[in-house]
Amino acid sequence: MRAFLSPRMVLDCHAMEGRRKIVFYDGDCLLCAAVVRWCHRWDRGGKLWFASLGSDFARERREDLDLPGPGEEAETFALFDEETGQVAFRSRAALALASHLGGPWALLGKVAAFVPPALRDKLYDQVARNRRRWWGAREDCSLPPGSLRERILP
């Protein structure tokens, strides 16, 4: 089922093109959905947009951005910066996102950056492999709150 986009949402989406930071996530994962809601709540600059890895938006960009397919265990999360053209995966994506959110999250990201990348990614992979067992998976198609719905790319 295709989500309805109001004309205002389409205009907002296109007005921001080139300046967005797009979070690609596993749309069936409850942990991932909670992280998306949390990021949206802390995104003071309004630059974060979100796309499920199973969305048309992600499928159209999968090859160019080297995005994982839906359900791939290790890389369930990616952050694409349209301004720089860079894509971050795994723990690097989490650190970039924390930096973007600012405040205490940026500080936490700076502290976490001292952990060697191999160790950070090992921890990330452990959570990614077990996320559905620990937090569950979506069985229905629940709609996010209105302000977040406007930031979900089709």
Automatic annotation (TrEMBL):
Molecular function GO terms recorded: protein-disulfide reductase activity
InterPro entries documented for this protein: DCC1-like (IPR007263), DCC_oxidoreductase (IPR052927)
One Pfam family, short name: DCC1-like
Highest taxon of the lineage: Bacteria
PANTHER family for the chain: DUF393 DOMAIN-CONTAINING PROTEIN (PTHR33639:SF2), THIOL-DISULFIDE OXIDOREDUCTASE DCC (PTHR33639)
Entry protein name: DUF393 domain-containing protein
Organism this protein belongs to: Roseibacillus ishigakijimensis
Organism ancestry: Bacteria, Pseudomonadati, Verrucomicrobiota, Verrucomicrobiia, Verrucomicrobiales
